[in-house]
Amino acid sequence: MKMDGKTVLITGSTDGVGRYVAARLAADGAKVLIHGRDKARAKTLADEIRGRGHDAPIFYQADLSSLAGARQLAEAVTADHKRLDVFISNAGIGSRTLGSERRTSAEGHELRFAVNYLSGFLLTYLLLPLLKASAPSRIINVASLGQHPLDFDDVMLAKGYSGTRAYAQSKLAQIMFTIDLAAELKGSGVMVNALHPATYMNTTMVREGGITPISTVEQGGEAILHLAVGDDVAGKSGLFFNGMQQSQANPQAYDEAARQRLRTLSLELTGLTSA
After folding, report:
1. Out of 20, 161, 167, 200, which one is annotated catalytic?
2. Exposed, middle or buried, 212 (CB in 10 Å: 0-12/13-18/19+)?
3. What pLDDT is stored for residue 274 in this prediction?
4. Model-level pTM greater than 0.90?
5. DSSP annotation of 179
6. For the stretch 122-157, what's the b/e string if a residue is b when 16 or more beta carbons lie within 10 angstroms of its beta carbon?
7. Domains contained in the chain, CATH given
């Protein structure tokens, strides 16, 4: 897909793999909308992109640890732009970000589930009118190979909390949503896929977890770009990729009843009456 004249939104794009993807797409001529919480980081990225002779990205500041932040971001993007060709839902926190103890979002939801999954769920639905109007368009959910089945009796992990499990279930929830949404959007021209970009990239999130990186941001970034612009995936939707290769997620992702339970819960928690 040629990116000239295309508009792309990447959440969590002032650092890590999102930052790399933003710079690459700007170099390809896209109008890039970057998102983060830190204005200084956004300015540094914008200056770098402009310094290479490309149009500076447009920065949207929002905190996705609250659903209000997701709504604010969607409203701002929708007010400013008539089209959205690619939405890369990349913002997330790791298993040990802010420490290993259980934390909650502004609305009282378990924080990793809220940031990694719930805000992206809400944001996607609020941006769908723009994406449909720009079809053929693409949604990419940046998930992980680290996946844990959801226990619907304790989705918020109030009992026996583990940051690793919280992270892994939030990532599986993203994949379940991807499969569900692809079926819903069939025939609309909007494709949606999820991926594990690369294992333990050299990002802030990985280093915060005390893990020695084994992959580069560039490797992960290229896998995301493949789903964003690759011609070979143009008609593919509802799939999970491990890097560049189509792969299989945790079995719960393919359990229709489990996906329906997650959907019902997600609509309830985000205040979307229907989708």
Report:
1. 167
2. exposed
3. 62
4. yes
5. H
6. bbbbbbbebbeebeebbbbbbbbbbbbbbeeeebbb
7. 7-270 (3.40.50.720)
